[in-house]
Structures are given as C-alpha cells and as structure tokens.
Amino acid sequence: MAPPPRQLLLHLLLFLSLLRAARMMGSVAAASEGDRALLTLLQRVQSEALRALGPHDFDPKLYVDLPLAPGADRAAAEAALSSVGTREEMEAYVARYFDPAGSDLLAADPPDFQAEPRGFLPRVGAGEARAWALEVHALWKDLARRVAPAVAARPDRHTLLPLPGRVVVPGSRFREVYYWDSYWVVRGLLVSKMYDTAKDIVLNLVYLVEEYGFVLNGARSYYTNRSQPPLLSSMVLELYTATGDLDLLRRTFPSLLKEHSFWVSELHNVAIMDNDGCVHNLSRYQAMWNKPRPESATIDEELASKLNSTAAKEKLYHQIASTAETGWDFSSRWMRNPTDMTTLVTTFIIPVDLNTFIFKMERDIAVFAKLIGEKATAEVFSQASKARHTAIETILWNSEMEQWLDYWLPIDGNQGVYKWEPKSQNRNIFASNFVPLWLNAHNSGSVPFLDEAKSVGVMRSLHTSGLVYPAGIATSVSKTGQQWDFPNGWAPLQHLIVEGLLNSGSTEAKKFAEDIATSWVRTNYAAYKSTGAMHEKYDVEACGKSGGGGEYKSQTGFGWSNGVLLSFLEEFGWSQDKEIGCPS
Question: Which of 182, 290, 332, 347 could disulfide-pair with 318, CB 3.0 to 4.6 Å?
Fold first, then answer.
C-alpha cells in the first residue's frame, strides 16, 4: 500500500536533506585544508606556552587566536619554537612571530548607532534605569568590529574567518562571532533601532551557511567541525517583523533550507518508535570531530590522560566537541556521572531545547515560503513541524512532572530505530525542561504549541522545580562546578522562559514572567554598578553577583546579556518610581 501524501512529502524532505548533507561534509573537509598548518603550529605554541608559563590564569584559546605577524614566516616560527624554554623566551617568541589575538578584527563604529534613538524604550522613565539602559545601549559601539581585509587576502595567516559585514562580538576572550549568541544580540540591536547592524549579523551567518553548509559554532577555522543551537531562522523572523524586508526573506531562504538539511541529516537524526508502533524523528548534537578542541586542547588532553586507549580518548574528544555544539559547555546535563567529565554522552541524548529550536525553524521556513510564494515548500515544512511537534510531545513530554525531559539513548550500539522507554527520560531538573514554553511567543499565525491549561501546568511545575531564585532562574539544581549548572543563571534561558510565560494566556503566568524579568534586571544593574561591566552569566542566589565555574574565568561585555536586558526593558518597561537596585 502506498504511503499517504503527507508521508511522501516528509520522505522527500529527508531524502533531499541527506543529499545536501553529503555535499556539505565535503565542503567542511576542503575548507579545513588551507589553515591546517597554521592551526597545528598554534596548538604547539599553546602547549609550549602552558609548559613555560604555568597553569595559573592560562587561557589556551589566546594562542590559537594569534595571527602571524606581517613578514613573519610560519616555517621559521615552527623552527624557532623548539628553542623556547622560559617565560621570557616564550613572551619574546610570541611578540616576534605573531600579532596580538584579536588584532585582525578592527573597531568599527556602527553607522546606525545613535546615542538615544527615536522611540528607544518608551516605557522606561527618566532616572537611574534609563541612564543605565543608555549606557548598555552604547556598549554596541564597544563590541562592534569588522574583519580586517588581510584575513581574506591571506587566510593561511589567520584562524579568524572572513565575513562580509560588520560584526558584534560577545566580548573579552570571545573575540569572534558566535552563532547562538547572535540571536540575543540581534534582539538587543532591534531595541536599539540598529536595523542595518542586525541585518549584517544575519547575512554574516548566511555567508557561513553558503561556505560550509551550516552556521559554524563561531567564525574561526577551528570551529568548522560543529555548529551551535540553530536560531538563524528566528533572527530572520525578528528582523523581518521589525522591517518588513521581503527581499531579506528571499535572500536568506536557500540558506535556511540548507541549514535545516544539516540538522535533520543522518548525522543528527534519531528515529524512535513509540508504544503504538509509530516512528518519530528527532535531532541530537553531534560534532564532526574526535580530537582535542584546538581552542582548549591542553584542557582536553589533560582530561583524556585519565583514559588508557587511543580509541577511548577519541570517543571522549568526540563527546567534548559535541557538548560544545550544545552551547551548554559544560553541564551535568550531559554526563552519566555529574562529577566526572569523562562520562559525557551528549551524542546519546535527545535534547528538549534543540528540538524546540528545530521545530520553530521548520515553522518559520513554512511561513517564509508562503510569503515568497513557495507554496509546495510551505506545505512540506508545515507538515515537518507538525511531525516534530508530535514527536516532542510523545517522546519528551512527561505528564507527571509537567515538563519536557531530555531522552537518553542506550550507549551500547546504534539500534537503527530505538524503542521508546519511559525510564530513558532524564528526570533531573534543568532550565531546558521549560524551553518549549518559548513557542507560545512565536505561533507564526498557526496553532499554538501548547494551550493555556498546559502552559499553566508547566508554569506551576517551574514554580516548584527548585530553579527559581531571588536573582533569576538557575540552569540546574546541581552544584557541580560546571558553568551550566547551579548557581549560574544565563541571559538566554531567562529570556526563553520569560517570553514563553508572558505569552501563555494566563494572568498568573504573565505576573510570574514579569517577576523573573524584574529580578534579572536588578541583578544585572547591581553587578554593573559594582564592576562597571555587563557579565556573561550571573549567580542567581544573590542579587548583583556574577557567575563562575567552568574552564575559563567569567567574561564581560557581554553581547547576549545586553540584548536580553534591553529586550526585558522594552517588554516590561520600568517606571520612574520603581526601585532599580537590589531589594533590601
């Protein structure tokens, strides 16, 4: 019996995705050839620098970001490295053969920046809150860059990748563009009425798709083996909603199809059969890499030294890189033993948030296709989003907990089609368990992802989850020392959950959303006043305290924190008589 038309459409979509995926893998391999020699040298420099300088405050990423100095010869630099032994010799060596990290990104004042643009935060009254918001708005000038022309002219001398437009970097050690950070940067830029800069960011990411077949983790040659949470279609939608730029949809549409192919290809797709015999397709993270991450090679090698065999080390390196693709690097969420990073099993986990983002991508593409007259494609992606919606609700939803839970696959070999087991849902509490609420805010004119009654149930589950603290939502309830665990709170997670609660249709949920946003604004303000900076993450146990943990020092700048803050102030406002500091 022939399959019904809906299944034929979905089978056609999967077939096309596999064809595109095969092409993109070849593209990634070819693209890495030109910079391999430089990256190999820089990893040697990184290793020798650790030996010469010692581990205190050592940042391995610094060394793989170094561009060759003008006139410096790579072969000479390789030869000279063997004679470096002391701190003084290492410092002299780096100064002779390399330019400073980040020097191949040039400061670039955004032409669409205005000190106080017309219509900026109309519901934020005069006073401390508005003065601070204008200071945060002004940080876009500090974070704006353009890639130096030398990068495109001599790519063999840089690990930085060329990009066609202006960029906004996260800040501090993160000197380059990052994928999922860019969504909240775009949201903030739209609040700041910087539409041209936001468009440049989107088109830079589209350029990466055109070059590599997917959006890279970041714009460095050492990131060509993995992506990050896929939010490009969401950026396009936000920009289109703000500007009505139909040409932007036409320009980006082929790249969105290509990116979707990447995320549903055999590399990421997992088939699971439910108890009724229906097979569902969901996606997982999986990097194309089984070596130490170049930007953290010394850290990865030290961790892998606990393992005996080359095969075991390669498996660990693959899991580490795949965890970096999640954006949650690192968290007990991905470990069998929360105290031991060698037990990472990320590629055997079906994540709630990843499939939420892909569902939204599919729905966005359906909307875009309809707008530009691609009716057949609109139907294919409408059906794909419905199929993923059903899969998320069947495989990941837990009605007892009223949360969506990551699903863990058996690690004893690929079964082809896995059989759903209720015990395979991870019942530990993470903020990601509530990310599908975000879809309430983005219905794209179609049927809501969840109705008001279910939204209220999820909201009450969040209330009692142990995640809600005086300064925001914690990432997990486990204190492991990893940065994507308790007590850290991250701007993206606050925003995803708050925006979902706000659009749940319930007065109680709207009040809860505003309470979380208010707490987050206050902790950002207090930390800014005490340190003079916006931070990458915050400690939700105490108002005004920045976060910590993980494999590097907490960073400042900071792109997505700035974007979420401005978005919250635009959404909720801040009256002149409302206290902005921490509650006493």
Answer: 290
| pLDDT at residue 35, rounded to an integer | 75
- For the stretch 384-420, pLDDT in tens is 999 999 999 999 999 999 999 999 999 986 678 999 9
Query: Which of the following is catalytic: 104, 176, 536, 570?
Result: 536
> What CA–CA distances, in Å, run from 503 to 450, 451, 468, 492?
11, 11, 19, 17
User: 71 burial class (0-12, 13-18, 19+ CB within 10 angstroms)?
Assistant: exposed
CB-neighbour burial class of residue 514 (10 A; exposed 0-12, middle 13-18, buried 19+): middle
Q: How far is CA 320 from CA 217, 230, 285, 303, 316, in A?
A: 14, 19, 11, 10, 6
Note if 364 is an active site residue: no
Specify whether the CB–CB gap between 133 and 116 falls below 8 A: no
447 has pLDDT over 80: no
Mean pLDDT across 556-565: 97
SS3 280: strand
Collapsed DSSP state (helix, strand, coil) of residue 180: helix
Say how many residues make up the chain.
584
DSSP 103-118: TTEEE---TT--SS-T
Looking at 35, 329, 485, 570, which residue is catalytic?
Answer: 329
Q: If we measure between CA atoms, which residue out of 319, 329, 332, 325 comes closest to residue 486?
A: 332
- What confidence tens digit (pLDDT) does each residue in 20-55 have? 444 444 444 434 455 799 999 999 999 999 999 999
Residues 426-438: pLDDT tens digits? 999 999 999 999 9
CA distance 539 to 456: 27
3-state secondary structure 117-152: CCCCCCCECCCHHHHHHHHHHHHHHHHEEEECHHHH
What is d(CA 159, CA 175) in angstroms, rounded to the nearest whole number? 12
